[in-house]
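for the writeup, i need someone to sanity check this before i put it in the appendix. the sequnce is what the collaborator sent (i think, or maybe the updated version? ugh). structure was predicted straight from it, no edits. if anything looks off just tell me and ill rerun, i have time this weekend
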Amino acid sequence: MKNLSFVFIVCFLVCSCLANAQSYASWTKDKLTLNNGLVERIIQVPSDKKNFITTSYKPVKGDFRYFTASNTDFQFEINNKVYSGNGNWQLKSIVPFADENQGNGAAITLLSEDGKAELTVQFLLYAGQPVIRKNLVIKNLTQDTVQLESVDIEKFNVTGYGATTFSWICHDYGRRRSIGPYDSNLQDALVTVHNSDWQEGVVIGNEAAGVVKHTSVFWNEESIESGLTHKDARYPFRKYIAPGKTFTTPQVFTIVYNNHKDPDEVLNTSVPDFVRKHLGTRLSVLKQKPTFVYNTWVPFYKDINEQLIMQLAKSAAAVGMKEFVIDDGWAENYGDWVIDKKKFPHGLKPVFDYIKSLGMKPGLWVSVGSASSNSVVFKTHPEWFVLDENQEYANLHIRDTSMRTACFGTGWYDYIKNVLMKLSLEYGLEYMKLDFTVVTSPYRFTANYTGCYATHHPGHKDHNESLYTGYEQVWKLFDELHVAKPDLFIDCTFETMGGLQLIDYAMLKHAEGDWLSNFEGPEATVDLRIRNMAWWRSPAIPSTALVIGNPQMQDSASDLHIKSLAGALPIMLGDPRKLVDADQKKYRAFADWLQLMENRYQVMSYRQDLPGFAEPMDGSWDGFQRINTDTKAGGIVGVFRQGAMETKRTVTVNLLDRLKTYTVKQADGEIIKTLTGIELMERGFEVSFNKLYDGELFEISSDK
């Protein structure tokens, strides 16, 4: 007990040194309290050999009935032995804990009863946010390497019948509703559990990567769990920890709320506010957000050359494009990344310089983890490449032996880093579209064609561990690229992420965007799919991270393409050389207008649902708003008729200053109406379309 008293004295002195910083954590010898004025969590601390359990977690004001008075708090397995908050732990220390994103809380270090593991539980809270963020640091105290699996970073026990029977489980980015039990998939970066009778709920944001994230609700017991996939999962997490070494888990953030009839109210407010301000996304630190991107993929595919690119760049600049991305087809093969001198006889640097001279940022496509079977790098370093379960070289991406997948737990990491560094630093590249499978593929449906089965690669010991370390090495690569070039925009495609239209919080902390799709087909269908994808992923995911292809500039319905894309990151493909003067002026006007909206309201940092407009679907109306909820100065609104029988709708806008006066304008500047914030919320303005498929963009501006 003398040692324990000394620990608390030291902690008190540390806290005193941090007196000028706001603290959201306080503790006694047997209780830790986390409270930022909005949420409160009380944890039983083992002053002697006792449990480490959450005894209360609720909003500071009002009732909250979801959790019991004894929550397991965390759980994991080491060498198949279960460790959880319900076990016996010895307290080693409690110290203040903070992060670089204004988070403040406490770190509690515990010793397991068997003396084999040291655990540090880290909690963070944020000013004005009803959020608690948590992760685990697990240290191996034995003399042997141990195997960590089935990690639940958060584990809450719910109150039984009322919680399990009458809850909606809002999965797939909080958008799809079902009843329990529910076991998550790779698309569940965010899940909300909501009881409409109680008007209460829990938001679970899982910051693990790709296929190794896991959240379950009432699955095997009356509990809510979130962390990493279990050892019996389709894509099981595993990490080997050497003697004396530690493993730090990803974070999980939770929001508990009451007095909300619908979970979408929280999805549109607290969730994006926290993500934008405190999650630590790359977009949040990017000084200049992209507003209009051109990509060469469709209709040219790999059939590109210097002359064509110069022509396309000139035409794209004329219509106001801000970024110009050269897609696949510039290199001799995959892996060596030697410029095809038949196509680009002067190399790429003069092409990039020309693009810059036109006022655009140059971008380039690279397959970050693949090499052609006839490439020099594959022939010279076959030990860098993924092996399948039969110890044969594999193409994880598709069934095609002309390409092989590289393993990031080998010398490939340094090799591809040098390639990308040269492109960005020596050639002046400012946008990288990094593509193709590195861990799992959207196009292969058997779990054995994932990860790497090699046992001699230094980055992983076995296949299961490679599923996690593959992502971690890719994130490390992205971080090193950003250190060298802080304003580089990395587009980590859904193919690199490893699932159809997959994007998550792990990626957002290391890359700015995600090419989510290759939508093609009848033009009205393309626009619907664009708006549906943007609705589906946001507001849980920042909409400017959503790079949604492939609408073409010369399409007859390009007006609707432009307006639909304004709800995400506007990106166009096609052939801008084919545009007639009227179309060129139309594109230029849109590009200038959207840039003006970004300058005035920072619209690329915001997106919310438009009240009364649901998921975009045929036969209905849909819409979005991108209102700056911090300044409340205004923003933009998009409204669409998608084959609906009604020719007019009343549009209301929320999240504005109720007392301010706002002017509603069309994109061409025509004034529609002037209303106060509360009038816009309650009365709104009328929009009518004569065409079955049409849309319009509006500016909402506050009177100075």
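The longest helix spans residues 463-484. Residues 103 and 168 are 30 Å apart (CA to CA).
thx in advance!!
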